[in-house]
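Why Lnb N-terminal periplasmic domain-containing protein? Reviewers of the renewal asked for a concrete example.
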Amino acid sequence: MILQTAIILAILAGAAWGAFALWFRPPWAGRPRAILPAAWLALAMAALSGLAYGHSLPAWLSAAALLVLLAWWWLGVRPSNERPWMPEVARQTHGSVHGDLVSLHNVRNFEWRSATDYDARWETRVYDLSQLHSVDLALSYWGRPAIAHAMVSFGFGDGQYVVFSVEIRRKRGDKFSEIGGFFRQYELAVLASTEEDSLRVRTNVRAEDGYLYRVQMPEDAARALFLSYVQTASQLVREPRFYNTLTANCTTIVYQLARQIVPGLPMDYRLLLSGYLPEYLYRLGALEGANSPAAYRRAGRYTDRARATLRAEEYSRNIRRGVPGVTAT
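Here is what the prediction returned.
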């Protein structure tokens, strides 16, 4: 009885996983999307029927064979940098380091007027690490308080800011699906951009809610974190990876990079529920200038300031007004 129950549970789990995998990552393009998942579920039901009518061995063997076949196909699914990408992720950031100078290629600096009306600009910019003076965490919310997109912005003495964002590389026609992110539906990219692009498009075009937090960290740690982003972005150009909703998303990548700089960083549920990252940073003592996470949130919300700023050259200064830990200039 215990063995039969275990077999039934294994078939049900395999049926669910296989249906999702075939739905979100179909092996053949241009086919009706529901055919393969429906066929897979029908085969699973046939195996369960065999168990119900006393044909346990044939049912178990056929289910196992089908799972092996599906796993063989799944292991052959490989990430690629050669797909019909959406324009905003059409290029990948990569960089080279020469002493204190870092040259970043394909820094996105789009001028957004709407989600479909924009001027596409990809630029090469040079950053002097000896002038690196600030690290800010930007969180952008679009609905649920527990989920936000996390970006890290580095500020330099010459007035430049560069934002690193772990992005889903969506193909033309793709729609975002958190479940699809578990099933290799998207590739992963680490994208560098200007604040007038990646922060502004979220508040002013996509109607998201933006918050900024000044992160206090030693200069050598900030420098190492910046270089880790450059290295990760460049490596993804050479070796593409899949995005994963749980293990390779915007927050977990930040944690993996920061852990290289500060060994022993504690794991925490807020690394998965990215909307609560400020509480995690507060616990680590990485925020200064306010006496509670709630106070940081109130003062760090820059949505209204962003929407009121029309001139690009004033954007970075205006969104930092009143942010705890930011020295007024």
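The first strand starts at residue 94 and ends at 98. This is the kind of structural detail the renewal will allow us to pursue systematically.
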